[in-house]
């Protein structure tokens, strides 16, 4: 693993974590395309690459925390005050409860899928097929939302649906933001509200994965031997690109349809499925 690879993957992670195009799929594609052109076996996936993936997600976590710092502090304050006063009526308190509930549902759904997700890292052709279905879901969400009366408030039912959708997105190829935003559209949320809630919902699960996975899976005696210059470079790039992506994506969804991302997922999914099927 070299610095060019980590910077490239940092850019890909920063863009695809928040755009509805599946960051996990694009990291799988980028890593495996790089191996193809370097003549490295696709099945070769080192612990260092797994650790890099965690660090890239940490970069985008920092990006979303910085961008939504005001909202995060307001929600945390509302939860503390609500629990102290037993007044649960504030909008921020309810939003905090919905995020906590959505996170538990995500874990409940994602945990049984974790072994399959690890296998799919070595199956980029299958990931491409799953990405294709992400496109179908996005386009369907846009189609259905046009027939519904838009609303700006998250309901308990919507929070449950979006939490489950985020759990399904544990499988590489299913976009976390894509499935959660599409779920919001199916529930009549406007695009901006769905996207903002999707990003806030991502915080606990990315934070948890960044903290728990290394404790369970990573050999810290081995970590000190990694190429830290490359890893840090990729993490910084991931954070910077992620922050800019959030900023401009929210402006985009306030004015335009998500259909362009749906069509992209269809095309990218077919291309990568065919490419890696032929390569394999």
Form type: globular
Structural class: mainly alpha
User: What is the number of beta strands?
Assistant: 0
The low-pLDDT segments are none
Annotation field: number of helices: 13
Q: Between the first and last Cα atoms, what is the distance in angstroms?
A: 22 Å
Percentage of residues in strands: under 5%
Order of helical and strand elements:
HHHHHHHHHHHHH
Fraction of residues in H or I helices:
over 70%
Overall mean pLDDT? 89
* Radius of gyration over all CA atoms, rounded: 19 Å
Counting structural domains, the number is 1
Structure description:
By secondary structure, this protein is an all-alpha fold. The chain has one domain (3-279). It is built from 13 helices and no strands. Helix 3 (47-67) packs across helix 12 and helix 4 (69-85) crosses helix 5. The longest helix has 27 residues, at 191-217.
Salient structural properties:
single chain, about 280 residues, mainly alpha
Q: Short summary of the structure?
A:
The protein has helices spanning 3-16, 23-38, 47-67, 69-85, 91-110, 114-120, 124-145, 156-168, 176-186, 191-217, 220-223, 228-253, 259-279. It has 280 residues and is mostly helical. The radius of gyration is 19 Å and the shape is globular.
């Amino acid at each position: 693993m070299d610095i060019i690879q980590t910077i490239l993957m940092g850019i890909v992670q920063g863009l695809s974590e928040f755009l509805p195009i599946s960051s996990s799929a694009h990291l799988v594609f980028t890593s495996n395309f790089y191996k193809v052109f370097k003549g490295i076996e696709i099945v070769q996936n080192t612990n260092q690459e797994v650790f890099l993936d965690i660090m890239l997600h940490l970069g985008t976590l920092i990006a979303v925390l910085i961008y939504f710092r005001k909202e995060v502090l307001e929600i945390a304050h509302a939860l503390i005050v609500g629990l102290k006063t037993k007044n649960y009526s504030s909008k921020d308190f309810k939003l905090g409860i919905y995020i906590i509930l959505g996170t538990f549902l995500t874990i409940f759904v994602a945990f049984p899928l974790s072994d399959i997700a690890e296998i799919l890292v070595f199956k980029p052709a299958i990931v491409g097929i799953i990405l294709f279905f992400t496109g179908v879901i996005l386009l369907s969400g846009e189609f259905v939302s046009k027939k519904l009366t838009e609303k700006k408030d998250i309901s308990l039912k919507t929070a449950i649906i979006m939490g489950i959708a985020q759990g399904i997105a544990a499988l590489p190829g299913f976009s976390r933001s894509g499935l959660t935003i599409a779920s919001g559209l199916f529930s009549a949320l406007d695009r901006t509200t769905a996207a903002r809630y999707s990003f806030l919902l991502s915080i606990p699960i990315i934070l948890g994965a960044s903290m728990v996975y290394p404790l369970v899976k990573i050999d810290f005696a081995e970590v000190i031997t990694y190429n830290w210059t490359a890893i840090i470079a990729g993490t910084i790039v991931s954070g910077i690109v992620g922050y800019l992506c959030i900023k401009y994506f929210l402006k985009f969804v306030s004015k335009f349809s998500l259909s362009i991302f749906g069509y992209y997922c269809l095309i990218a999914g077919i291309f990568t499925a065919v490419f890696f099927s032929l390569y394999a």
